[in-house]
Amino acid sequence: MRLIRFADNAGRILYGVAESERRARVIRGDVFGEFEVSSESVEIRKLLAPVQPPNIYAMGLNYRSHAREGGAESPPEAPVIFLKATTALIGPGEPIVLPPSAPDEVDYEAELAVVIGRRARDVAPEEALEYVLGYTCANDVSARDCQMRIDKQWARAKSFDTFCPLGPAIETGIDPGRLGVRLRLNGRIMQEANTSELVWDAGRLVSHLSRQFTLPAGTVILTGTPAGVGCFRKPPVFLRPGDTVEVEIDGIGALSNPVAGPGG
Predict the structure, then answer these.
(1) Which residue from 27, 35, 51, 181 has the fewest beta carbons nearer than 10 Å?
(2) Section 212-231 average pLDDT
C-alpha cells in the first residue's frame, strides 16, 4: 500500500492512498494502529513529508563503497548512529535552503528510510521488520565544512533547517533488501547502488537501535548512503542555488527538492 500525507483544499492534513497525482482516497483511523481506506476522494493541494517523526536516527558508513571513498579500508564493526533534528524535516518539492552560517559545502546523500509502525524495544533481528510500517526516500543533507573541519562532529552539520527531505510516500509492501537507490543532481546520476549492499540491513538496524533506545511509532531510520557524495568527488560537487536534487528508490518513487540560497 502506498500511503501519502497531504493537505486538501479544506486545509485538512490527511493520510490517504493516491488515486492519481492530484487525488487521493482518505484514510480513516490511525496509520500506526487501526485504519481503513474510505470511499472519500479528495484533491491533493500539497503533498507533505509522509510522517512527523518523534526521532530521526541515521547511520554512517553503512555502504562499503561509501566507507572506501572516504578512505576507510573497511566499514565500522558496529553501526555508526547519529541523530538529525526533527526540525530539519521537509517534504517533496520544498526547498533545501543553504544555511547562512555554512552555505558553501552542502552535500547530498540518497538513503532508504525506514518508518517504524509500532513501539519497538529489544526486538530480535528476525522479528524486526514486523515493527516497520513501511519505507520511503530520504536525503541526508550535510554541511561538510561543519562536519569535517569546523565542529568535527555531526550534530549541526546534519540538522540545519530543511536538511532532511523525506517522501514522497510510505510503501508498506516491499522487500527493503533489494531496492535500487540513485540520486540525480540536475538530471545527472551522482549515486547509484542497491540496498542489498548495505552492511547492516534494515532488519538488523531496527533490532540494534531497539536495543539502545525505545523506538516509538513514527520513528524514522535513515539507513546510510552509497558512494558518490559530492565531498569526495574530484573536484568536489556541492549544492548551489537553482539546483534540483532527486532521490529515487525502486518501488517507492522519487523525492525531488530544489535548492535555495540563504534567505530563500
Answers:
(1) 35
(2) 97
Asked if the model's pLDDT at residue 101 lies above 80, the reply is: yes
- Cell numbers linked to 79: 553501526
Residues 86 and 182 in one domain: yes
CA 51, 25, 20 angle in degrees (round to 5)?
90
User: Given a cut of 90, is residue 34 above it in pLDDT?
Assistant: yes
Cis peptide before 168 (omega within 30 of 0): yes
Shared domain check, 134 and 232? yes
Q: What CATH number should be reported for the domain holding residue 232? A: 3.90.850.10
User: Is residue 134 located within the same domain as residue 29?
Assistant: no
Q: Are residues 108 and 190 in the same domain?
A: yes
Structural domains counted in the chain: 2
Q: What range defines the domain where residue 165 resides?
A: 56-260
| 255 contact partners, CB below 8 Å, separation of at least 6 | 92, 136, 137, 138, 139, 165, 166, 167, 168, 246, 247, 248
Read off the pLDDT of residues 86-96 as tens digits, 9 standing for 90 and up.
Answer: 999 999 999 99
Question: pLDDT tens digits for 45-62?
Answer: 999 999 999 999 999 999
Q: Which residues pair with 108 in a beta bridge?
A: none
15 and 99 assigned to the same domain: no
How big is the CA angle at 56 (ends 169 and 200), to the nearest 5 degrees? 85
Q: Is 85 in contact with 54 (CB distance < 8 Å)?
A: no
- Considering the domain architecture, whether residues 96 and 35 belong to the same structural domain is answered as no
Residue 75's pLDDT band, with cuts at 50, 70 and 90, is: confident
